[in-house]
Amino acid sequence: MVKPKSRLLLLLLVVFSVSTAAVFFVRTALDSCDSRRDEGLLRPAAKESGAERRSPLAFMRSKKVVLVSHELSLSGGPLLLMELAFLLRSVGTQVVWITNQNSIQRDEVTYSLEHKMLDHGVQLLPAKGQEAVDTTVKADLVVLNTAVAGKWLDAVLKEHVPEVLPKILWWIHEMRGHYFKLEFVKHLPFVAGAMIDSHTTAEYWKNRTHERLGIQMPHTFVVHLGNSKELMEVAEDNVARRVLREHVRESLGVRNEDILFAIINSVSRGKGQDLFLHSFYESLQLIKQQKLQVPSMHAVVVGSDMNVQTKFETELRDYVASKGLQDRVHFVNKTLAVAPYLAAIDVLVQNSQARGECFGRITIEAMAFQLPVLGQLLVAPQRSLWMVNSLLHPAGKEGVPLLAKNIVKLATHVEQRLTMGRKGYERVKERFMEHHMADRIAAVLKEVIEKKGPLTFLRLSSVLPSQTPWKQRLPILSRKDLWSHPLICTLD
Ligand SMILES: *[C@@H]1O[C@H](CO)[C@@H](O)[C@H](O)[C@H]1NC(C)=O
Ligand SMILES: *[C@@H]1O[C@H](CO)[C@@H](O)[C@H](O)[C@H]1NC(C)=O
To answer: Of the residues 431, 456, 476, which one is the last residue of a structural domain?
Structure first.
């Protein structure tokens, strides 16, 4: 008999070997900024009381929930929605999944994700058609994932949109300009609530919707993410970590005593891999100039996809070759599993540029593995999360010398590295576990489901003629005072 733990480890090794040979992975949209103290809305979770802890989502038993995703892929958004699906399934919720993608490529990735969902008892429905409409109209709750999923409402529900709006929770993970299109978000003011991963992103959305589109955000909940149970199991298993570390290092040609820095994001200029490599090179120069005694230093860039970012990827490789760093810098394709890499490295670098990330999930994942983080300053506008395990540097070229210094600092100060890592781990245990996320989400679902009551039968057409163009309706309908107006909230 194989014990569950060893089975998990075996599975990870298999996934690891497969993923290095195949393509996938991506945590694009989601890697992000922030983490402030949970203020206001959502109280920190109560202390965990052993294994029998009742799920905060228990009240969702036998409720019907429809999840609408803009795609089925290994990017951050869909993966999070899947995690929510499984959390809900674990308490007996009826969960229906809809992927609203024009042509879903039936590749290995979608196949395995669909399989995983079916295994968990999630029902899969085609995006279009009467069944999708009927199911949604009958559901207790509809979760739209990312702004783009908004396109599905008019396209599929048509005249049923108004009656569905009051039970929609809109989960938003992105912070980019091109999402602020009426085409995607015109219904946003009328849904029961929006759920956003960080305070910074929530602020940004509030500003942008107001200024660019003249619409108001609905009631908005900030819900920080948490690490999945699976990830924590590996992170807290010394044997698993050691085996994975040896395995990955061997595959890269890095020895156990070498120091390995990693940047784990989909490769693109916005994620700052180029500037990281410049800093890495500078740090080697510093070490040489100052004749410092440090173990051999390596860097690994996890998240390559030559087919997608050909120009940038080529630029990175050319840089590495021009500085003679081929033996020290390693590129790894996008992969399903980040855990093996987190087990193998010594320091995580988070160098997303400009506004950075909406939450930066890789950061809390690295913290689970007791890793120190070298982070771009703006990625962490709320420092409380980062200060415990991070050294920070500014964005852009100006950041390169400081990042280089920080790399040298962590390479030469083993004690500091370990202390930072330990503190990060403690922070994760306090605030960023799956059960914390479940508590936060449960509070939101409860509020949304309980609130929707009298609004369920709202007919927008009873307020304004349906032929009124959206542009004219929005400023009127998004006025908060109208929403509490008895005329509008009457049962139909
Ligand atoms: C990485 O991806 C490239 C192109 O997408 C492919 O040619 C290469 O074989 C992959 N490498 C590994 C180790 O799978
Ligand atoms: C929101 O807008 C105000 C005024 O335009 C500005 O001062 C503030 O910095 C903006 N906040 C964000 C997060 O963009």
So the answer is: 431
